[in-house]
Structure formats: structure tokens, C-alpha cells
Amino acid sequence: MTKGNIYRVIDLARMFAVHPNTIRLYEKLSYISKAQRSKNGYREFTELHVLQLQICRKIFGYPFTKRAIRKTGDALLHAIAKQDWQMSQRRYEDYIAAIRNEIQLAEQAGKILLDWSNTSNTQDDNTEEKRYNRKEVAEIFGVTVEAVRNWERNGPSMQIIANQRRLLTIRRKC
């Protein structure tokens, strides 16, 4: 139960539908401010902690978050936990920029796939192909080399080809 605006670990865990250890972990990782302790040693959280946890759950509430977004989210949460509001504002802007960058990369990948799906299976003899290694593909799409390996292993086998117009197209290996 809460006393006024004081919350226990279990209260916050129920409020955010997470395990109590998740609340403790967020405190340990400095994603939220350190809680004051009562006379009996229990943590006492305030409305500020509720706000910090709302932000944590917005950032970490998704099953898949790319490294760039997670890294900027971590920096944002650390600034909020320290209650450094000017730094928090800068970190927030970095976080939004990282999300916009990921959206741009996703749109680029979608365009490449759309171009690929619209191409015919026949190639002109004049078309000059450039093959990319895993590292180059990872740089183009802004992912790790391991992600490209996973695509090869788990997805349809594809070649990435650049034609003379310097547009990327993806073609299945036969």
C-alpha cells in the first residue's frame, strides 16, 4: 500500500506490470534515482520515481531496440536519474535524433526492397554488378555484421547488387 505519495517496490512493480527485481535493477543501473530508506530499511519511492519508471518503460518496453537507440536511451535515463534537467534535455534530443535516423534507415531499406520486388528476374548484359561483403552491407543498413549473418542464416538467401544508376537492389540467389 502507499502512504500518501510513498510507494514500495511491489507497488511500482504492479503499477508497471514488471517483476519487483526489475525495479531494483533499474535503481542499481541508475535508470531511476536512489530511493530513500525507511527506518526498517525498505525502499520508499516517490512520484519522481513513478515518472522515471514511466520513461524507462517507454524506452525499454519494446522487445527489439537497436543498439543506437538503446545507447542514447541509457544516457537519457542516467541524466534523468541524476536530475540534471539540462543534460536530460540534450540527451532527449539525441534520443529523438537516433529514432529519426532509424526511421530513415528503415525507409531506405523499404525502398530498396520495393525496388527489388519491382525488378524483373532478367538482367541486362550491360548492367555492372558490385557485390558487397558483410561489413559493407552492415554499414549501408546501419546494423552489425552479426545481424547480416543472421539475415543470411535465417532469411531468404539474397545478394545485394548495385547497378550503374548507383541504386542498391537486392536479388535472390538462384
TrEMBL record:
This is MerR family DNA-binding transcriptional regulator. GO terms for molecular function: DNA binding. PANTHER family: HEAVY METAL-DEPENDENT TRANSCRIPTIONAL REGULATOR HI_0293-RELATED (PTHR30204:SF94), REDOX-CYCLING DRUG-SENSING TRANSCRIPTIONAL ACTIVATOR SOXR (PTHR30204). The keyword DNA-binding applies. The keyword Transcription applies. Keywords: DNA-binding, Transcription, Transcription regulation. It comes from the Bacteria. Residues 11-45 form the HTH merR-type domain.
